[in-house]
Amino acid sequence: MAMTVSYSVVPRKNPAKKSEPAKYYAQAQASGELDFEELCEAITSRSTCTETDVRAAISGILYEVKRALKAGRIVRLGDLGSLQIGLNSEGATSVKEFTGSLIKGAHIIFRPGKTLAELMKILSYQQVLTRAVAQSGAGGDSGDDPDKGSGGSGSDDDEAPDPTV
């Protein structure tokens, strides 16, 4: 069963080549949110757990994930996926030249598990007009099939391409 992802087309400049004109990229459009309260209620309705049980379990997972990440461990959450600390740093010309001061920050890397990865294989895509595109007159029927490219891609549609690649 296919799932349709709505996207808009947005201009993005290459930060490494600011003089070049912007290129246009797909950007996934959210159709709402699922907040913590609603998530707990939904899980409660699908199980024998009370909402308090669900909240306690999620709180316990968060506590243990933080402990494991602080200890430098990869956290594997079964079919949900895995979490790991990643670093952002400036480059050095050699290992001897590298110091901890070149590390600019950290982030959490999420790698989807099998269940979520399989979801990416059944996606279809439908373009939606954003207010800015509609006002510029750049939207409309381009003749492209809105489902073209279904089946997932190796790119991250929510971010501009990395100009260093």
From TrEMBL:
Pfam families in UniProt: HU-HIG
Residues covered by the HU domain: 3-124
UniProt keyword terms in alphabetical order: DNA-binding
Alphabetized SUPFAM superfamilies for the sequence: IHF-like DNA-binding proteins
Compositional bias annotation for Acidic residues: 155-165
Superkingdom in the source lineage: Bacteria
Molecular function as annotated in GO: DNA binding
Keyword Transit peptide: no
Region feature (Disordered): 134-165
InterPro entries (UniProt xref): HU-HIG, HU_DNA-bd_put, IHF-like_DNA-bd_dom_sf
NCBIfam families per the UniProt record, alphabetical: HU_rel
Name of the featured protein: DNA-binding protein, histone-like, putative
Gene source species: Bacteroides faecis
